[in-house]
């Protein structure tokens, strides 16, 4: 079993590092198109966001893109980073990555601080021999 765990870790840790860089870039640049690249092609994404967004449901890739586009249009990211102190929780189907996101509401200037939890899983593009890429299955946020 230890050999299997080592194999899984050696496969998924480089994917997590690449994913973290892409995720941070998307939020820091307020770019929903970059975030869309991290969404699965064929499975829904569960999004649970507290006030002021108040979103909680499963959404398709396109719906998730539209939600994030609206969110980035109304907020400006002050900081975003993947929490290095809380290492990813890895299981056979994916991993949970924690991040910290602070943003300002462009309409009224209010500032918000969130703890994000992203459940990611490896998705291999259908019909291709490319390596798997991590995709977001769930985005959950808590106000801090």
Name a few traits of the molecule.
single chain; 144 residues; alpha+beta; Nuclear Transport Factor 2, Chain: A; 7-stranded mixed β-sheet; 3 helices; 7 strands
Roughly how many Å is the radius of gyration? 15 Å
CATH architecture descriptor: Roll
What gross morphology would you assign? globular
Elements, N to C (H/E): HHEEHEEEEE
Estimated share of beta-strand residues: 35-45%
What is the overall number of helices? Answer: 3
Compute the average pLDDT: 87
Number of strands: 7
Count of discrete domains? 1
CATH class: Alpha Beta
- Tell me roughly what share of residues is in helical segments: 25-40%
**What class, by secondary structure content?**
alpha+beta
Give the CATH topology: Nuclear Transport Factor 2, Chain: A
- Distance between termini? 38 Å
Give a short account of the largest sheet: 7 strands, mixed
Poorly predicted runs of 5 or more residues: none
Structure commentary:
The protein is an alpha+beta fold. It has one domain (2-143): Roll (Nuclear Transport Factor 2, Chain: A). It is 32% helix and 38% strand. The protein has three helices and seven strands, in the order ααββαβββββ. The protein has helices at residues 2-28, 32-36, 61-74; strands at residues 45-49, 55-59, 75-82, 89-90, 95-105, 111-123, 133-143. Strands 1, 2, 3, 4, 5, 6 and 7 form a seven-stranded mixed β-sheet that branches. The mean pLDDT is 87.
Topology:
Blueprint: H1 2-28, H2 32-36, E1 45-49, E2 55-59, H3 61-74, E3 75-82, E4 89-90, E5 95-105, E6 111-123, E7 133-143
Parallel strand pairs: 1-7
Antiparallel strand pairs: 1-2, 3-5, 4-5, 5-6, 6-7
């Amino acid at each position: 079993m230890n050999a299997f765990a080592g194999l899984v870790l050696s496969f998924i840790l480089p994917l997590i590092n690449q994913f973290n860089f892409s995720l941070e870039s998307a939020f820091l640049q307020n770019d929903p198109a970059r975030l869309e690249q991290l969404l699965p092609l064929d499975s829904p994404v569960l999004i649970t966001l507290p006030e002021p967004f108040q979103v909680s449901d499963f959404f398709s890739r396109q719906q998730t893109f539209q939600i994030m586009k609206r969110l980035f249009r109304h907020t400006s990211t002050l900081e975003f980073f993947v929490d290095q102190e809380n290492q990813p929780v890895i299981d056979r189907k994916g991993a949970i990555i924690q991040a910290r996101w602070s943003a300002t509401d462009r309409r009224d200037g209010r500032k918000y601080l969130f703890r994000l939890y992203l459940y990611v899983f490896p998705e291999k593009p259908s019909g291709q021999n490319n390596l798997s890429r991590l995709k977001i299955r769930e985005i959950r946020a808590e106000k801090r």
